[in-house]
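Next comes one such specimen:
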Amino acid sequence: MKNIKEKIYIAVMLIVLLVPFAGMPFAPENQISEFVSLADAPRIREDGAWNVNFKKDAGDYFEDHFAFRSHVLTVNSLIMGRVFGTSMTEGVIYGSNGWLYLSDTLDDYIGENLLTERELYAVVHNLRLMQEYVEQQGSRFVLITVPNKNSIYPENMPYFYRRGETNNLSQLTPLLDEWEISYVDLLTPFREMEERIYFKRDSHWNNKGAAFGNRLIMEFIGREHETFAEVPYQTVVNHAGDLDKMVFPVGYTKEENQYFEHDFCDIIHRGTCFCFWHVVL
């Protein structure tokens, strides 16, 4: 009886171990997010020579493409997120109240590894050169400084990350004024906006935020525009956040988004001969 149980246990373990590999032709993992690209299939020969990294490439490919990968990652993320309040995905910070943040913005949030004085000088110097060139061509240069999501909504960042006293944007802004660089500062009006303008589980603005950003830009450049204050819209729960899909590939939560009767993107670009350059800080 003991031998039978051992054989059954070994058989079950073999099946569990083989399913991710054997199932690859039937349940391939090809999902690519905005921030993460899956490894390409390994090649025995590259550029006319034998690929000495074939074994490593094959391992990377299997790690990214094994069968039911999305389901395994989703279950693991659900356990880690709901039980321990942490994210298993390197690129995502698991905040409170269902909020997710892009981890690339963490250093800026806590005020570490910021741009040095030399780097800040290089930024404004190059921006000044760009602005002069654009103006020499008879156009107008406008820099749009887009604040990070956790600069607008820091209250849902994990409590163990202490917010820094300064960040890249606060250091850059006075230099933009000093060098007379034309820019639209979205930070203050975004903070004063009572309605939420970022998705909770996405790194981008929702359509309300995009319409508000459009209005601020158009006001800055003095162009006639639609404020969208009176434009009817519908709220639909259909948006799948990019950060949400990174953490929960098959178990993400759709959020509500607003859809106006006419498209603000058309209004922004139609007949506009300005050069816009944006930087996220």
Notes: The longest helix spans residues 2-22. Residues 7 and 198 are 55 Å apart (CA to CA).
